[in-house]
Design brief:
This protein is of the alpha+beta class and 214 residues long. The protein has 2 domains: 6-77, Glutaredoxin; 90-197, Glutathione S-transferase Yfyf (Class Pi), Chain A, domain 2, CATH 1.20.1050.10. It contains 9 helices and 4 strands. Strand 1, helix 1 and strand 2 (31-35) form a beta-alpha-beta unit. Helix 4 (90-115) packs parallel to helix 6. It starts with 5 loop residues before the first strand and ends with a helix.
Length: 214
């Protein structure tokens, strides 16, 4: 049975969009990226009233929101592929790892937004909070990196978060003192799904980078 044509509204700078694109490629599913300009409030608002990416749209016009929900839905469509969301009890470990990866993104994206504000308007306290959250998550992942044997939703979320740090905060040098996590990330970064979804060259901040959910 032919799969429904699926269109993914998003931007190539979004780690959440990348997460879905990597998942689709790992599952061998045809998902077409539809670039969206988030400054077109009326146009995108008609697609998603939450006004955030990603959005998965089906050929009959139905839409699905939230990167984690979309990834889990795609996992139900794949045939003959290892599941990204395995059954219990392994499922709970994988989802916990996924939440760490999502946590990196959830701190890094608003950190990017705060850092993009004019210096007098920035909140040093807020920036420090984002940076502390990222450090804590990275240290936890260094203690227990994602499983090397499977690139499941946990690994995809962590890889997407780390790639976004390299993309937007190359000066962080997160690999320093985290050799196990760095080695894992270097290995998974060579996967075709990761190389095919690389972030573009860095640009000045814009709404395409700053208005994104989990």
């Amino acid at each position: 049975m032919a799969l429904d044509r699926m269109k993914l509204y998003g931007t190539t700078s979004s780690p959440y969009v990348r997460k879905v694109r990597v998942a689709a490629l790992e599952l061998g599913l045809p998902v077409e990226l539809e670039p969206i300009d988030l400054t077109e409030w009326a146009k995108f608002g008609a697609i998603n009233p939450i006004h955030r990416v990603p959005v998965l749209e089906f050929s009959d016009g139905r839409r699905m929101f939230d990167s984690q929900v979309i990834c889990e839905y795609l996992d139900t469509l794949a045939v003959g592929q290892p599941p990204l969301f395995p059954p219990p009890p392994q499922r709970w470990e994988v989802l916990s790892t996924a939440m760490l990866g999502n946590g990196i993104m959830d701190a890094a994206v608003p950190r990017r937004g705060e850092a993009a504000r004019p210096s007098p308007q920035q909140s040093p306290t807020q920036l420090a909070s984002y940076e502390r959250s990222i450090r804590q998550i990275l240290d936890e992942l260094e203690r227990q990196p994602p499983a090397a044997a499977a690139f499941d939703i946990g690994g995809i979320c962590v890889a997407s978060g780390l790639a976004y740090l390299d993309f937007r905060f190359p000066g962080d040098d997160w690999r320093n003192r985290r050799p196990r996590l760095a080695a894992w990330f270097d290995a998974v970064s060579a996967r075709p799904s990761m190389t095919a979804t690389r972030h573009p060259a860095p640009t000045v901040p814009g709404l395409a980078d700053l208005v994104q959910p989990r």
